[in-house]
Amino acid sequence: MSSWFKRKEKGIQTATEEKKDTPRGLWYKSPTGKIVESEDLAKNFYVSPEDDYHVRIGSKEYFEILFDNNTFKELDEKLSSKDPLRFVDTKKYSERLKAAQQKTGLKDAIRTGIGKSMGKELVIACMDFSFIGGSMGSVVGEKIARAIDVAKKKKVPFLMISKSGGARMMEAALSLMQLAKTSAKLAQLAEAKVPYISLCTDPTTGGTTASYAMLGDINISEPGALIGFAGPRVVKDTVGKDLPDGFQTSEFVKEHGFLDFISHRKDLKKKINLYLDLIQNQPVRT
């Protein structure tokens, strides 16, 4: 067929080779099938306006939402994992780390920073699921520990945003050690009477849930987030029974007493600061 063939049905005169596909990334389709322009999605705090689906986002987006004017000082930004066990599965761990760093532009599965939120200083540690599933390795634990130390020293509230598949198997015991390490640091923070808020986002699972994610002075979440130790499929296969509707969603977890409240993403900054104002006996900010 000639390359000059033109479609004339319904008055279309565009040559086949001149057709252009819609650029990728301009549209987002939610799991419920709703389609929204990426620009509108960003303006709506990365929440699909038609079905209120909270899209998974990372530290970059959360810092933009929570820090005033997206202004903050990043802590320990160059810290990255080694390969002490020389772990090899389908690929060397060292190669996976390098590939993840190149793909995401991150050093590891967490970023930490200090800045102002509604005019008050706040230390935030935020996990990134895009980096090896947000798995908790030695660097994740170390950066959380160091961020807690900063919060303790400066008497600044600490916010932990969890988004993780659990422990990083490629670091074995070094990964599991971070459960005790971060929990001990949070105990020190509590002794210093510095507030700790834990925000569980989708998904918060495994060792993350078994440690710092559930140790907040107040534990909060976003709508529809998966929160649990083992995933629903594993639990179902283990118990051999069908699970209740909404099992392990943030709404289910709150109903059973493990969360204090659930907040729409657009209200997060205001509600977090309202809580801090109340417990620190400060004038409530509006």
Describe the structure.
Component of the acetyl coenzyme A carboxylase (ACC) complex. Biotin carboxylase (BC) catalyzes the carboxylation of biotin on its carrier protein (BCCP) and then the CO(2) group is transferred by the transcarboxylase to acetyl-CoA to form malonyl-CoA. The protein has helices at 38-43, 59-66, 93-104, 138-154, 172-191, 232-239, 250-255, 268-279; strands at 27-29, 35-37, 72-75, 110-117, 120-127, 158-164, 196-204, 218-221, 261-262. The protein has one domain (56-279): Alpha-Beta Complex (2-enoyl-CoA Hydratase, Chain A, domain 1), CATH 3.90.226.10. The N and C termini lie far apart (67 Å). The protein is α/β, with parallel strands linked by helices and 286 residues long. The longest helix is centred in the middle third of the chain and has 20 residues, at 172-191. The protein has 8 helices and 9 strands. The chain has a 7-stranded mixed sheet, with helices on both faces. Strands 1-2 form a two-stranded antiparallel sheet. The model is unreliable at 1-24 (pLDDT under 50). β6, α5 and β7 (196-204) form a beta-alpha-beta unit.
What descriptors fit this protein?
single chain, 286 residues, alpha/beta, 2-enoyl-CoA Hydratase, Chain A, domain 1, two-stranded antiparallel ribbon, 8 helices, disordered N terminus
